[in-house]
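thread: overnight batch results

M.L. [08:02]
morning all. the overnight job finished for the chain we discussed friday. pasting input first so we're all looking at the same thing
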Amino acid sequence: MGVRTIRSEIEIDAPPEPVFDILTDLARYPEWNPFTPQIDSTLEPGAAVRMRVRLRGDDKLMTQVEYVTANERPHKLCWGADIPLRFLIRADRCQRLERLPGGRTRYICTDDFSGWLTPVVMRFFGPAVQRGFDDCATALKKRAES
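M.L. [08:03]
and the structure it wrote out:
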């Protein structure tokens, strides 16, 4: 089984530092993040990330708990599922900020899926995750540029 990646990317007219501040201000996610309107964590490496995620595009939220794997201000914030049977499914989400000329930032969000259940997860949840990542990137851009 190979890795399947969902990716969203957008350029933001703001430097990485304030964009990273938005990504790490979890209390304010309900104000701007349509995909993950509720999230709680210290964001310390190894800490739990408790999220309510909007996968279906409606008001129903799915609860997820993942764990911080990287927090490197102002360039990288990552977390992933930590399940005992990793050969079945593993998901690792990473949000990266690249400094661009003129005080701009490239935001790149990826979720790498691996394991035997990856084809099933991609079939049933892949389009929703892609939509959610794209919506989040657009909302982050709007928030950072306002």
